[in-house]
Description:
- The protein is built from 5 helices and no strands.
- It has 161 residues and is mainly α.
- It has one domain.
- The longest helix is centred in the middle third of the chain and has 39 residues, at 40-78.
- It is elongated.
- It starts with a helix and ends with a helix.
Amino acid sequence: MTLWFKHLAVRLWLALFIASLTAMLLLPALARSMGPAWMIIPVVIFFLFSFWLVGWVFAAIGRHQMDRLLGEASVWERAGMNREARQLLARAEGTVDSFFFSPFSRRRPAGRLLAQLARLSWPAAPPKMRRNRLSPPICAFPPVIAKRPPNGWKAFWRAGR
Length: 161
């Protein structure tokens, strides 16, 4: 909930600042042509446009920072320097938790960050934890005979296989 308030507070503050500057510059010219009674309509339009623009710019800045941090972390990871990679991933986590992403668009960058953290933590996990649904099953029989032999199991064992 605090992330929602943080994002909304920064976005509203900047939108009001930009809309008020735009209104001070453009409203005197519009007042002559439209009349002072209709000035609320351009002010609302300026505010809505600046609110949308601030959100779009914040999302672009956040995506750029995430791409840069995740790319650099993967370079450190491939070089075998896991501590530096974890530091960069912690900074990327701070970017996801900052006001750059709205609460509605936070899932995609958080998923990318979680996938990168999982790839980094994968070799450190114990062998039993590293198995996933794509790993080959552990069984007593080799994978070739996982299916029932055509002549049955008794004929299979008599053949010495």
